[in-house]
């Protein structure tokens, strides 16, 4: 036993003796034994003194302090759990970690029109950049230039492909009068969308080799960073966010295509995404393009 346990046992023993003396005292009173009563009363007073002295020693021991300054006394929480020492002091949270505004869409991001919501992320400057570099490629291939309305129609069809999960279906079937959808061949012809796909560019092709030496993601870096910067303008993040990675399935030619054996598709482009855990909103994205030497 530890010293503290032995003292507890000693106190219990003295309490037993005290009770035994009290019992004999009552018996003697009943039998009118005066001599024995005086002796037992003396024994009772001595035992109480011993118990009081032992309790004082326990109180002194409970208030002992260790060498490093920690209090070794018992601490009882509101739930009833007993600790040998008091818990660490709770300090105030830093002001930079306090969220004073609720999580959600900001006032600047509240738009009811679909076109305006799309323009918030793909700003007119980004669309003009894509049109400029696309028309440069169209001039090289002697293909008709693309205008702003045609570019918005093209992006609308791409979004519609994803919503209807038609990305794995050939364009010949999607533009078929029998199997296709009216929204596809009613927006533009199949030949025209194939032309736009072949000339679509997001950067200056003349300066690309120089930028590609340090960044494999150079053909899309300028537009990607511009769109990525708009995510935090119209949404206020909260304390609960999720950081995870997503594999966009792709088996074509790409210098930063990765192989993940644990994923169902295995081959594709790896994207790391920071999103809100409660609102399902993307806050930031980063495409893994190998070692970044920018």
Discrete helix count: 10
Q: What is the rounded distance between the termini?
A: 67 Å
Q: What assembly state would you assign to the polypeptide chains in this entry?
A: single chain
Number of strands: 8
Which term fits the overall shape?
elongated
**Mean model confidence by pLDDT:** 77
What structural class do the secondary elements suggest? alpha+beta
Output the helix-strand order.
HHEEEHHHHHHHHEEEEE
- Percentage of helical residues? 40-55%
Radius of gyration: 40 Å
**Residue share in β-strands:** 5-15%
Features:
single chain, 294 residues, alpha+beta, four-stranded antiparallel sheet, two-stranded antiparallel ribbon, 10 helices, 8 strands, elongated
What does this protein look like?
It is elongated and about 125 Å long. It is built from ten helices and eight strands. A hairpin with a 7-residue loop joins strand 6 and strand 7. It has helices at 3-31, 34-62, 114-121, 124-141, 148-163, 171-174, 182-187, 190-199, 208-212, 218-229; strands at residues 75-76, 82-83, 104-105, 235-236, 241-249, 258-259, 267-276, 282-287. With 294 residues, the chain is α+β, with helices and mostly antiparallel strands. Strands 5, 6, 7 and 8 form a four-stranded antiparallel sheet that branches. A two-stranded antiparallel ribbon has the order 1-2. The two termini are 67 Å apart.
